[in-house]
Design a protein that fits this description.
The protein is an alpha/beta fold. It has 12 helices and 9 strands. Strands 1-2-6-5-4-3-7-8-9 form a 9-stranded mixed β-sheet, sandwiched between helices. α9 crosses α10.
Length: 307
Amino acid sequence: MEKTDIITLMQLPDVGSKTVLKLYNHVSNRRLINLDFNDYISLIEEITNKKFMGIHIDKSKLKAEKLLEQCYLNKIKIFSFLDDDYPDRLKKIGNDKPVILFSKGNHDIMKTGYNLAFIGSRKVSKENYKIGVKFSKLAVDMGVNIVSGLAIGCDTAGHRGALLTNKNLLSGKTLAVLPSGIQNIYPKKNTTLSNEILEEEGCLISEKPPFESPEKYDYIMRDRLQAALSESIFILQSSLGSGTVHTAKFGEKYSKKIFCYGINTQNKGMELNKKLINEGKAFDINSEEQFKLAISKERDEHYEISH
């Protein structure tokens, strides 16, 4: 199955990653070979009990051509789940993996090094924001990559701290997982931050085509990628109503170690931190030194296993 076929199929009405994965499994299980695009259309119709008119197919081809051109002009790489260089971290999440992923910048962050998801609520206290920037810089200075979602609040603290690194050869980078297309940064307020990430050899990724706006469900999909692309997760500050809850759940599902900032968990906005620590689902971090020791230990163990 060629990448262009996958992209074109996904431009058809109501055809997404799950349908394409069903198609791929169907083809693999039957050991079907030498199929062309029209064969894939017929098989999708068989799988979904839908009939696509000629106009739908023609439109999907035009949309795919436009999408490929947009990516070429904006230096965006398209990963297919069948590519040899598709990130192993995403292969490991099985049917949760993106079928198509758009990436701009330093793609290697998805594939190498030790990644820490640095997350939390959009509403963050001034004190915790400063602590977040400091912790993130500490991690990157230790060669750890910071993965976050480019939202305001805790995400911004994570990215900003990463950009303050001493910039030696061993320094980590930062990767932003977007709920929107790479050329349509959301929130707009962080457009400058996204440019700085690229300038400092970081990376922007998204499942959305370059110029698309985010839908409600895209935020949850973004949260799963943050968890999948990281070896462990650090929650700076989060309420129980924050999207961070989704990332924590995906972290549990993917067997990721979770750390929570544990100071003043009785304060408003720290409810998720308190809950995860009390339930034994997260390790509490109460100081810079403790953060440094915990993350360096995780990093070293990761490299021992991978080598």
